[in-house]
Amino acid sequence: MSRPTPVTTGRYAPPAPVRELTATSADGAPIHVEVHGPEGAPAVVLAHGWTCSTAFWAAQISELAADHRVIAYDQRGHGRTPASPACSTDALADDLEAVLTATLAPGERAVIAGHSMGGMTVMAASARPAFREHAAAVLLCSTGSARLVPESTVLPLRPGRVRTWITGHILGSRAPLGPVTPAARRILKYATMGPASAPAMVEACARIVHACPRTVRHAWSHVLATLDLDAAVREVDVPAEIVVGTADRLTPPVHARALAAALPDCRGVTELPGVGHMTPVEAPDLVTTRIRALVTAHVSAQQPSVPVEESA
Hints:
Elements: E1 19-24, E2 30-36, E3 43-47, H1 58-64, E4 69-73, H2 89-103, E5 110-115, H3 117-124, H4 129-134, E6 135-141, H5 148-151, H6 161-171, H7 182-192, H8 199-210, H9 214-225, H10 230-233, E7 240-245, H11 253-262, E8 266-272, H12 279-282, H13 284-298
Keywords: Hydrolase
GO molecular function: hydrolase activity
InterPro entries: AB_hydrolase, AB_hydrolase_1, AB_hydrolase_fold
């Protein structure tokens, strides 16, 4: 069965990168990386979430690449990065380290933005040498550090063992998502987006999520179900901002508030009324503005950049 492709028109159409390369992770896994924008510009690194791809950041890339060097990569098994049997928070941290090392010069610092599992990637890598060397500040969008399944409100049931058990089985399902149909759009919108999400937002997200292989979706669901990065949050010792939607059913605001309390240098939590889990798509201008402000405050435009050879 052919997989959906990203939208090709509008603000959610992925722009063409200036170059593409392959970063090699600690276990030899190849990680697909895209670089957008001018060399020598302040750097931004984007880590997408579960079942997504670099296409998820299309709106941010299009805006920021005018005067930033934007580095986006596909998590293992997502987008153009091959699947790997190694699915763990350590693997997420290894892959981010590999991307930072491959794209940034020694000592060069960047703002790192992570959405959902991408935010968990930032937490997992927080004590790693490459993160400590290169992270100037972070933006955590719609994410959490633990208790993802018990806190999820995808099912309109009272919190407790029954809701947790059913939610875990739904999120960990091996069932194929199938083609992007009107019914599929309605289901995805209910589970992952706010009720006022525009059709173009829903279409863009549906195409991205439905393109994720079910084996990859299932494998990473186990990592999320058992996630425990509470200790790692306290190692994120750079300025951090948090964005969350009040209608987020996958990582409700309770997670954002817990992160804010645990982060050593939290600069604020923005709760977006009526917005769901897909904040970079549902609130693209706000997320882009937050990234840009972090770059202005914490990244020097005069840092050296390193040319990276293209890889097939």
